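Two quick folds needed for the group meeting slides. Do the first one here.
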Amino acid sequence: MKLLTALCVPYVLARGVFPMLGYPLVVNSAVYRFAWIGCLSVSLFCFCAKRCHVWFRNLHNSIRDDRYLIGRRLHNFGEAALANQNQNQSSEDAGDGVLIGREGDVDNGLRLRRAIQQEA
């Protein structure tokens, strides 16, 4: 279908539509000569425009997702989070490398090591 369009549209424009407009034979010959180059240029421009549109849309979505942290979980989100973390650390007993669960977690499957909590 694309090959048929690429061959027929320039021919129909150059031999059918353009001569009916009443231009001289020299102009019609020039239009016939450059019709395929012109259609190729237009189709190449449309292809590049579509690719750039997709690229900019993906870039915009990526920046938005990074800004609002879509699909990620916020761990440290302000003063209240630091106070909660300090309170949880002070109430727990000392043990290195032991997996512990925090009571405030919504997702109970996520567990942090004590060493990672102390570094943060």
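Then this one, please, same format:
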Amino acid sequence: MDSVTKIASQRAVVVFSKSSCCMSHTVARLFIDLGVNPSVHELDEDPRGREIERALAKLLGHSTAVPAVFIGGKLVGSTDKIMSLHMSGNLVPMLRNAGAIWV
């Protein structure tokens, strides 16, 4: 759990992902399109990936751990939560408050 917290606090937006996960790619692409430079942490390329994945699944409350998105060091959720925030107009203000975008 400490490694998740440490990684998540290093940048304004952190996406825990797997390189083969299309939903992780979609979420990362959304952030890029909004002008954010997210830190994408590929769990399948990290020697501690399985340990981190178990910690994320526990935090999210379900077995699918990716994508897991942190904004401003706080867990926001997975694809459904990010898309819901975006569609409701609440994602951009959250990104501004975290310092991920300035416009």
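Slide caption for protein two: The radius of gyration is 13 Å.
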